Amino acid sequence: MPTRTQIARGLLAVLIFGGSLELFARLDDYISYGAPMWGVYNAETLYVRDAIGKRGIPHARFRKWGLNALGYRGPDLIAGRPTVVCFGASETFGQQEREGSEYPRQLEQELNARAGAQAYQVLNAAYAGQTVRTATLRVPEIAAMARPAAALIYGVPASYIEPPPLDAPPVPPGRIEQPRFELRIVDRVRTLLKGMIPSSVQTWLRTREIRADRGAATAVARLPEANIQRYRDDLSKLIAALRQEGITPVLVTHVDAFGETLSDSDRALLTSWRKFYPTLQEEGFLDMERRANDAVRSLGAETGVPVIDLEKAMPTAPANFTDFAHFSDAGAAIVAKTLADGLLPILNRE
């Protein structure tokens, strides 16, 4: 039986080992990204809250994600150059793509390559978790700051699985609350384990987590029609806000990584998607996407707003996605080309 001295030595060795790993993680952040050695360093340090919600801090940076003078991802805008603004959430902001390969940046490159000059610029006005409703509230200030000619609306239906109440009280303005201390090595260990643990085991763990999160609540097989209608209504309000500012709105259907026939790996992806929204069963996500895109198409026809049907144009090949709905570099390139195809005739009429 180990003595107290042996136990203490063992604990001390673990603390020294863990502390060394944490120190190396902080040194890596400092050398690679210029991050502070001490204090909290995560994606939320890019933002503060104002009367509307989250907004980017001008020139803030976290790892590969850098914000411009307006607090949006990407380079600073050039005065007088025709601007296209992209509204969306994490798929638009860019998650797994290399820096500069998110689809708004590739769209800008595509538009200028076809124009044969630096004729256009694209403002990425998205952030992870942004809703259509919040985007609508941002329209007047974006119009004043950037004076865009057109706006691409890439709404995310999944944000309507559990939408906040219509009368939800506003969050007080100020810096987003952060933990006083966080271990930066944890994220690296989590990423390492994901690469080591078999997919079947990860799916089993996610299923257990979903059950724990859901508690006694019953998961529905199909998103209620009222949720789809609310998505459509919010898109309609965003269209109206853009038109009021003289900005041409363009709707874009949402795309995911799933084809008509689901493989075992597809079902594992659906489980990983459901982990974020445990109240909807896996099969309900595909039905939700189909109905939401039908709502986008019908809204476009009803309001005379152009619709770029990305769902029909985007191949669901695994190489184009990094998970259930976020793009790889190659996938973002296809998105950019598809959007440029639909957008250029509109810009040429402006």
How much β-strand is present in the residues? Answer: 5-15%
Strand arrangement, major sheet: 6-5-7-9-10
What is Rg?
Answer: 22 Å
CATH superfamily of the largest domain: SGNH hydrolase
Distance between the termini: 82 Å
Task: Using the coordinates above, name the CATH class of the largest domain.
Answer: Alpha Beta
Q: Give, in order, the helices and strands.
A: HEEEEEHHEHEEHHHEHHEHH
Sheet with the most strands, sense and barrel status = 5 strands, parallel
Specify the CATH architecture of the largest domain.
3-Layer(aba) Sandwich
Q: What's the helical proportion of residues? A: 40-55%
- Domains (count): 2
From the spread of the alpha carbons, the general shape counts as globular
What is the arithmetic mean of pLDDT?
A: 89
CATH topology title of the largest domain = Rossmann fold
Structural category is alpha/beta
- The number of helical elements comes to 11
> How many β-strand stretches?
10
